[in-house]
Amino acid sequence: RIPQEIPNTHEINAFAFAPSNPDVLYAGTEVVKGYLIDRPVPFDPTQPSQGMYKSVDGGGSWAAINTGLESTLQNVNCMAVHPTNQDIVYIGMLNSGVYRTTDGGNTWSNRSSGIVVTDIRSIVIDPSNTSVLYAGAQRGAIYKSVDAGASWLPIPFGMDPEAAIRSIVIDPTNSQTVFAADWFSGVYQSSDGGQSWLHINEGLRTRAVHRLAISSD
Fold first, then answer.
1. Which residue in 213, 204, 97, 87 sits closest to 151, CA to CA?
2. pLDDT in the model for residue 217
3. Residue 200 gets which letter from DSSP?
4. Are the CB atoms for 104 and 119 separated by under 8 Å?
5. If pLDDT is split at 50, 70 and 90, which confidence band does 32 have?
6. For the chain, what is the HEC assignment?
7. Is 36 exposed, middle or buried (0-12, 13-18, 19+ CB in 10 A)?
8. Per-residue burial over 39-78, b = 16 or more CB atoms within 10 Å of its CB, e = otherwise
């Protein structure tokens, strides 16, 4: 059930439920085709969107949760919900880096210190250590935080520094093994928590990779 307040010039670009409470859902909006900013389509990246919405009844009803996002254009590219705390959510913005809420979306704060390319297309929380996060940027490669987003460091070593990282997954059996999808050059793997990266493209005929998934085992 899509919130009626969202006009058809906007779209739900990021959507997630809280793993600790499946009745809690979060949805992030973006202007139509905002995520195609790297392609030759007409798009004005200065257009504002509707920001974040939340449901606490499994999608039966929704409410806008944008306090703290007023200074942004509220175009949400991606999000990650804490694995055990339904109130902690990170979102990656089209123009404004990373924001975090610790109170279920009542308030948001910027968590982008150290991020240079603020078009964040993917974000993931390490389930084995929730202070560790990875964020992928559009033509800005990848960043890592070890302090719950308070600060970030670029970790593109072995990766194209202008990679467009659209998806990141962490091996649930070994959090040092991380995979990243690049829109331009395929899939990267790190075996040391992002300190170095290698291409793993053998047999991959199409190198524009938009989403990755990994088995729970």
1. 97
2. 85
3. -
4. no
5. confident
6. CCCCCCCCCEEEEEEEEECCEEEEEEEEEEECCHHHCCCCCCCCCCCCCCCEEEECCCCCCCEECCCCCCCCCCCEEEEEECCCCCCCEEEEECCCCEEEECCCCCCCEECCCCCCCCCEEEEEECCCCCCCEEEEECCCEEEEECCCCCCCEECCCCCCCCCCEEEEEECCCCCCCEEEEECCCEEEEECCCCCCCEECCCCCCCCCCCCCCCCCC
7. exposed
8. eeeebeeebebbbbbbbbeeeeebebbeebbeebbbbbbb
Report the alpha-carbon distance of residue 50 to residue 34 in Å, rounded: 13
121 Cα distance to chain centroid: 5
Question: What pLDDT digit, counting tens, does each position of 2-27 carry?
Answer: 555 555 567 888 999 999 999 999 99
Amino acid occupying residue 159: M
User: Could you give the CA distance from residue 84 to residue 81 in angstroms, rounded to a whole number?
Assistant: 9
Specify the amino acid at residue 82: H
The model's confidence at residue 153, banded by pLDDT at 50, 70 and 90, is: very high
Calculate ∠ Cα 197-132-11, nearest 5°. Answer: 85
For residue 105, give the 3-state DSSP assignment. coil
Q: What is the pLDDT of residue 161?
A: 92
For the segment 182-206, the average pLDDT, to the nearest whole number, is 96
Residue 37 pLDDT = 59
The length of the chain in residues reads 217
